Amino acid sequence: MTLALPTQVAPIPGSPATIRSKAARFAATADAIHEAVAGLRTAIADTRQHESDALDQLAENATKVADRLASLQGRYDDASEALASFAGDLESAQRDAQALVAEHADAAHSESSYDRQIAHFRDERARTTDPVEAADLNRHLLTLAQRRDGQAAQAADAQARFDRITERLRQSGGDAARKMRDAADGDGFNDGWWDDFSGWVAEHAEILKAIHSILQKITMALSILSFFFPVLAPFALAAAAITAGLGLVLAATGQISWIDFALDVLAVATMGVAAAASRTIGGVMTALKGTRVARLAAQGTSNPLRVVTGSFNGVLKGKNGLSLLGGRVRLPSPTWLRQVNSVKGTTNAHFLRVAESAKAGAGGPLDDILLGIGRQEILKIRVASAVTAGSKAVDSALGDALPNLLDLFGDTDHETAVLGPVADWYEGVEDAATWRIGS
């Protein structure tokens, strides 16, 4: 058990109460394991009263589990005893060291005072010409030196006793750590790579959380841009997947809640749904154009392809997408931006405009089926996006916005009556959703 101890006489740091609290937690865990083992053995005994191969097998497996749990109990019992013992030694060492602090300070102060007096009377002796006065000064200097040496010896003794106190405490900490290691190594449970990995994640948690936050922002930016530039869609999906993967690591090691990870997964799912639906809608658009051309041809229309193409292009002219006009960039119109954002993609917005306004060759059972398929895919996109956006909005409101709002209100009746319990409830949900795999 590593503890940074001062080398010179000073108060010894550390909190015995905190160490005892951890010891009590280990003891409570050991008691809980003991109760679980007792209950399991009782259940095993009950199965012995029935003749059943299945119950016999269950009892055999349960016996192995009970034995393993019983050995695990020893780990927590030993850890609790080791910590409790070290807490007592730390408290005793702090009390003894505190008594030495004043004693050492007084002796060091007196030693310095005698040194100053000795220097003063040495100067007087050097200036005097009277042999009698010089002899008196020599006797006085001898007395001061003896007293100074006495105070120096007292300070040195206090330092030596302090060194013995810190050495005993260091030995106590080492013994406690050794007992805990021996208990962990000897109970048959392998604390392997996952525990090492979890420790590494905990050490670098702040950096990993910052990276996770940056990835979330990058994913959001790429997903919005991919609505207008479909070539970016795979990159947005990849960024979302990486974000969710890092979220899984942080959630599994107890650094973020599983609710946060679930929101990352929802973002991936939404992008996946939108990508699949957009591909389907692209196929619907191609099929829709073909069926309408065929329908007009059957009706005897001259050049049906030109008519249908003109019908499609006519409703798409008003999209006002990003384009170059006379060497100047023309930004998309607000209406077109809203349409693209509402259905998460230009292809999907094109379909809606064609479905609502392009009428050349429209009609007939096949045309209706294709339009129905396209509208179903649009509905999937909107529902998936609404679920993700709604979940994030609720999480943000209950996790961030609501506590900040309560801080503005202060201690008022309407806060505690409605908003306060809601905030407390969601904080409890977040805490309950934060745990480690294997914990």
Compact description:
The protein is built from 12 helices and 2 strands, in the order H-H-H-H-H-H-H-H-E-E-H-H-H-H. The chain is an all-alpha fold and 439 residues long. Keywords: Membrane, Transmembrane, Transmembrane helix.
| Quaternary structure of the protein | single chain
Shape annotation: elongated
Q: Helix- and strand-based class?
A: mainly alpha
The total domain count is 2
| Strands ordered across the widest β-sheet | 1-2
Strand content: under 5%
Please give the share of residues in helix: over 70%
Low-pLDDT residue spans: 412-416
Number of continuous helical runs: 12
- Cα distance spanning the termini: 23 Å
Written description of the protein model:
The protein is mainly α. The protein is elongated, with a radius of gyration of 40 Å. 82% of the residues lie in helices and 1% in strands. The protein folds into two domains: 16-186, Four Helix Bundle (Hemerythrin (Met), subunit A) (Up-down Bundle); 198-432, no CATH class. A hairpin with a 2-residue loop joins strand 1 and strand 2 (328-330). The chain has a two-stranded antiparallel ribbon. Mean pLDDT is 77; it is low at 412-416.
Provide keyphrases for this structure.
mainly alpha; 2 domains; two-stranded antiparallel ribbon; Four Helix Bundle (Hemerythrin (Met), subunit A); 439 residues
